[in-house]
Design brief:
Elements lengths: L3 H14 L17 H14 L2 E8 L9 E9 L4 E7 L5 E7 L2 E6 L1 H7 L3 H10 L3 E5 L8 H4 L2 H6 L12 E2 L3 E3 L2 E10 L2 E8 L6 E8 L2 E8 L15 E3 L5 H14 L1
Parallel strand pairs: 6-13
Antiparallel strand pairs: 1-2, 1-12, 2-3, 3-4, 4-5, 5-6, 7-9, 8-9, 9-10, 10-11, 11-12
Helix pairs in contact: 3-4
Length: 260
């Protein structure tokens, strides 16, 4: 489960920013930038930023148990990150803090009771309440977070695809969360895709949506170049992964079956 949010988010961003959606007419009569130029500049900023805050919501997963429904993550190209993954069908949430090779994970009570049903989940929730599991990416059970928290790995997934190019339509200026933006809309694989790019220079992506054909995704992007918070949980707030009880280790064994 835990590695899937970034995979889904990268796939979504690839769809939203694919060069297949960056072919458009030249600048219009007002002299404003064309849809192609706006999308290209937004994509370039996303590919080259050293850090970023990214939120991802899959509304189709909200009713699906075991599926990540949303993610809120600040991450950088050095592999540091802070954020939360929320599970669908009221499956709780898990908080991630990663600094260098060290990883801290904290699931809420609902998360543990969903992941480990029955007495195992209750015992894990009681053992770990308000505490993080702490280890390093050298631990097999935590290694998957190495890519989840690596902006560089995310950026590498945004590979160009020059086939089946389709045009974007430049809309009228509007706002997203109070930010003046220009919407760029197009169609991709039966889904309507909209990119909201800042109206003023530098033109960066603020939000992207993909809807239709069983898809309802929203991604937001902010804090380009801002450092990831460096604070890490204290020893008192943590339980070392090597000291976990056999009950909680069942969770890691499940994760290894899924991701190994």
């Amino acid at each position: 489960m835990t590695g899937r949010p970034l995979i889904c988010a990268a796939a979504s961003a690839t769809l939203l920013l694919s060069p297949a959606l960056v072919t458009a007419a030249a600048a219009d009569d007002t002299g404003d930038p064309s849809a192609r130029r706006l999308a290209r500049e937004a994509r370039d900023h996303l590919l080259h930023t050293q850090s970023l805050h990214m939120a991802w919501t899959d509304r189709t997963a909200a009713a699906k148990k075991g599926e990540p429904a949303s993610m809120d993550l600040s991450l950088d190209r050095d592999g540091n990150c802070v954020g939360t993954v929320r599970m669908g069908a009221h499956g709780g949430s898990i908080t991630i803090v990663k600094h260098g090779d060290e990883v801290w994970l904290k699931g809420d009570s609902t998360y543990w009771k969903t992941e480990l049903p029955g007495s195992e989940g209750t015992a894990a929730a009681e053992l770990l309440k308000d505490r993080y599991i702490h280890g390093s990416t050298h631990d097999r059970a935590l290694k998957e977070w190495e890519d989840v928290c690596d902006l560089d790995a995310f950026q590498r997934k945004l590979t160009p695809d020059s086939q089946h190019r389709k045009p974007l339509t430049r809309g009228d200026r509007t706002t997203v969360e109070g930010i003046p933006v220009i919407p760029l809309t197009g169609e991709e694989s039966g889904r309507r895709v909209t990119l909201y790019v800042t109206a003023d220079s530098p033109h960066v992506l603020v939000e992207g949506t993909s809807k239709g054909d069983g898809t309802d995704l929203t991604m937001t992007f902010s804090d380009y170049g801002e450092p990831v918070p460096s604070a890490t949980p204290s020893t008192k707030e943590s339980v070392d992964v090597s000291q976990l009880s056999p009950l909680t280790k069942v969770w890691f064994q499940k994760r290894l079956v899924v991701t190994g």
